[in-house]
Amino acid sequence: MTLSDDEIERYARHIVMPQVGGVGQRKLKAADVAIIGAGGIGSAVVPALAGAGVGKLTIVDGDVVELANLHRQPLFREDDVGKPKAELAAEFVRRLNRFVEVSPRAERIDNQNAEQLLAGHSLVIDGSDNFATRLAVSDASVALGLPLVSAAAIQFQGQVAHFRSKPCYRCFVGDAFDTDDCDNCSELGVLGALTATIGSFAALLAINSIVGLSEDPSGQLHLFDGEKLSWREIRIPADPACKACGSA
Ligand SMILES: [Zn+2]
């Protein structure tokens, strides 16, 4: 995997940092990331990863743009209302960076198709808006051995974590939410700037993982309080009885 002169110029502010360098930039180019959800989280993740030069992106979202999305989803504009998010997000990527190969998948991911959709990627970022989807994505990531960055935001609260096999997202939330969309933000609300903050942090965790910037970031949950404006970290213990990653 080599970088052309155009790419070296484009990513100069990455490459000049010794922690990234040409080696890290080539790792980003070699990465193949699946982004689940082109909503509030995805609106921060998609530009960050496309701009960073992640070589391949798959964007999975079965929804169309609604007017009530626009306060937190700057990938879309007023005249996009009613159009499919996955295709619009892919078009954003194509216009931003011709060195990124992007595949839109305008479908809903669930436990029937998750493994098939995620197979072959090198990392998954989940910014979907309900527990059932997040668990399906997590279980498939565990089964395929893929690192997963899982991010969620509601009202003023955000959480983001990097998982690698064990512990997994299911260890964190348990089995109770398999079929329940109880965190739907249409009922509870969400601050637009919060999803951008959490989505940007998710992109940072993904880049950290791909480049290998710090020690293994997995198993650490980052919680953000958008009212108090504070972050805290919690280590997630592996559940030995976990249906997805447990040894039981
Ligand atoms: Zn688990």
Q: What can you see in these coordinates?
A:
There is one protein chain. With 248 residues, this protein is of the alpha/beta class. The protein is 38% helix and 18% strand. It has helices at residues 5-10, 12-15, 21-30, 40-52, 85-96, 114-118, 131-144, 169-173, 185-188, 192-211, and strands at residues 32-36, 56-60, 101-105, 123-126, 148-154, 157-163, 220-225, 230-235. The protein has an eight-stranded mixed beta sheet, sandwiched between helices. Bound molecules: zinc ion.
List the helices and strands and how they pair.
Blueprint (H helix, E strand, L loop, with lengths): L4 H6 L1 H4 L5 H10 L1 E5 L3 H13 L3 E5 L24 H12 L4 E5 L8 H5 L4 E4 L4 H14 L3 E7 L2 E7 L5 H5 L11 H4 L3 H20 L8 E6 L4 E6 L13
Parallel strand pairs: 1-2, 1-4, 2-3, 4-5
Antiparallel strand pairs: 5-6, 6-7, 7-8
Helix pairs in contact: 4-5, 4-10
Low-pLDDT residue intervals, each spanning 5 or more residues: none
Could you say what the CATH architecture is? 3-Layer(aba) Sandwich
User: Which series of helices and strands comes N to C?
Assistant: HHHEHEHEHEHEEHHHEE
CATH class descriptor: Alpha Beta
Q: How would a textbook summarize the main sheet?
A: 8 strands, mixed
Task: Based on Cα principal axes, name the global outline.
Answer: globular
Unique ligands? zinc ion
Count of helix runs: 10
> For the record, what is the CATH homologous superfamily label?
NAD(P)-binding Rossmann-like Domain
Helicity, as a percent range: 25-40%
Structural class label: alpha/beta
Strand order of the largest sheet: 3-2-1-4-5-6-7-8
Our estimate of the beta-strand percent is 15-25%
Q: How many structurally independent domains?
A: 1
What is the mean predicted local confidence, pLDDT?
A: 94
Fill in the CATH topology.
Rossmann fold
Distance between the termini: 41 Å
Number of strands: 8
Using the CA coordinates, give the radius of gyration: 17 Å
